[in-house]
Amino acid sequence: MKTHTIEVQKFKAAGNAHGLIMLKMDALVAPKANVEGIEPSSILSMTEANARVLMSLLKAQIAELDTKKPKSRHGRHG
Length: 78
Description:
Shape: elongated
Radius of gyration: 18 Å
Helix content: 25-40%
Structural class: alpha+beta
Strand content: 35-45%
């Protein structure tokens, strides 16, 4: 598996299609060396401001996906 360090510079847009949320962004992407004995994984980092933008974009896209789901005709269960 290839691992990377990804640093978000700026979120530009968000959209969704076929159940996937897609984000357009500027980011610095660099290969990350694996450390022996530690499970390999990529790292995504961003500023607090970018994290807040990401949260807002995700909330909007999830709300849009929810409006496309068919409503239950049987009422609430539980």
